[in-house]
Every structure is written in C-alpha cells, then in structure tokens.
C-alpha cells in the first residue's frame, strides 16, 4: 500500500501543515521536485521490511515487480543489494526518529558501477508504525562535472605554461606555429636533413611519424573547437616526446614527429601510447565536451628507407592506410622487399 503524504509529514519535532489542503499540496510538490532532481525515494515498513512506497525513479532502478517488493522487501531483488548498503540500512534502523543517517556508497550491482549519496531516516506515524524513508542521489553526474572542470583547469594551466615558455623563448612567428607552439614545416625539414646527415656519417637511426586528426564522428567542429583539439594534441605530442625529438605542425590537421636515436619498434610503442592518450583525452571548448582520435604512419631510417624522400613517402602511405582502416590506428610503414642477387 502507499502511505498518504499527510501521514509522512507527521514526524515528531517537525511542524505539521496548517490544514489538509496544504498537506496535500506539499505531497504533490515533493514527488515532482524529487523527479526533477532525479532522486530515488523508497519507504519501507520497519517491522516487516516490505516496501510501502517507491517513486518512479527508484522503481526503474530496482527493476523489480512492485507486488514482489510489497510482499518480500529486498528478498525480491536478484541479485541482492551489496552488503555495505544493507549494513547502512541496519545501522539506520537502530537510530531514533530524529537522527537521520547520511552515507555515500560506491558499488557494483548487476554488472554496472554506481555511486550514491543516501539519506535514511526513521519516520514515526501517529498510529505507531515506524517507516524507514531513504532518499538516493546519484553522484555520477556530479562526478562527471567535477572531472570536466578538472580537465578544463588542467588545459588552462597547460596553455598558460605554453604561453610562458613561448614568451621566454622570444617566440619568432616564422619558427613556431602560434596556435600550437609546435615548429613549422620549414624548421622540421631542416631537422630531418640533420638526422639524415647524422645517419650517413655516424649510422644514427631515427624514426619519423606522420600524425593526422581523424574527422569528428557525428557532427563537425567549428574553428574554435578545432583549435582547442589541435592545442590538446600538441600538448600530448610534447608530453610523449623527448627534448631531443622534434615536433611540428605540417599543415591543417597534420603533424609530424622526428624521434632521434630510436628504432622502429620503440617508436611504434611510443606512438601507440600517444594514440591511446588522444582517444581518452577530454577537450572543453565553449562549454562543450569534445573527444578526438588520430591516425599515424610510423617509419624509420634506415629500416624503412635510408633516404629522406622515400622515408617521407613511406610515412604518408602508412598514414593513408591508417585512415583507410577507419582511423584511430598507428600503422607501420611497409618495408621495401629487395630480392637477393
């Protein structure tokens, strides 16, 4: 059975509504407010343990037939609620009506992770019955908001550090891309020539990587959103490379990395880590949460090719293959087969 709102209002020490009309109005407003807040409400009979009322949100979460809840209480739930929840309820039942219990619970139930703040309080009705009223607030939305705020603050801090670093360097607009802080193509080509020269003279191997932003999934990004994503990728590129390495923005949404004194296998492992970090990154732009992935082509000198033109062509071909496979992949450049003579 359901408990009348006027009965639930008769808690000792609380002022009673002036008349039944007001009690009825409050009884109408409370469920509407709880529904708007997404709060789960359950009322149990203390003696029998049976549910006497649940709101729609709680009924959907429990996913159990109402008649079974009314007759069996928590015994109708399969699987049963986790032990910490049952222990907190047992504790609440031992408290007097004017001593509510507030607790937070993080648990797994029915294969899903949950986190709730639960307010439990004993209600004493005029006829002597004792009811346990519990209000459940889902903390997941709040946690997501907190995570987004942390991500945004982290991005702001990283951008400020980048701005400070560029200021200390006396940034030359012809050498660095202002939007990402990465070197431009001309400087990168010079570094590639130096790496090739070091290989020819001292046999120093190096890896070359072409990186491209994948197109967004369901909707296109405007230029401010693209700029935010490019800046995030640039930060991840710097974070996953060494001081001896070179990073650059080639053009549009394409980037490059030159990793000195590094073989193909190790470079591929580093870029796989970067690819996973990109897929997990959250970018906040104009209040919107953006996610992005990248495609990569990985080559090395001399394993893939000993000459600059062939090495760049191999990188571009591997990048194109990664994009053709659907993106969010790092592909090794093909090694040319030379038959034995």
TrEMBL record:
Residues 142-169 form a coiled coil. GO terms for biological process: cell adhesion involved in single-species biofilm formation; negative regulation of bacterial-type flagellum-dependent cell motility. This is diguanylate cyclase. It comes from the Bacteria. One of its GO terms (cellular component) is plasma membrane. Keywords: Coiled coil. It is an enzyme of class 2 (transferase). InterPro entries: Diguanylate_Cyclase, GGDEF_dom, Nucleotide_cyclase, PAS-like_dom_sf, Rev_trsase/Diguanyl_cyclase. GO terms for molecular function: diguanylate cyclase activity. Residues 204-335 form the GGDEF domain. Gene3D superfamilies: 3.30.70.270. Its EC number is 2.7.7.65. It catalyses: 2 GTP = 3',3'-c-di-GMP + 2 diphosphate. PROSITE patterns: GGDEF. SUPFAM superfamilies: Nucleotide cyclase, PYP-like sensor domain (PAS domain). PANTHER family: DIGUANYLATE CYCLASE DGCM-RELATED, REGULATORY COMPONENTS OF SENSORY TRANSDUCTION SYSTEM. Pfam families: GGDEF.
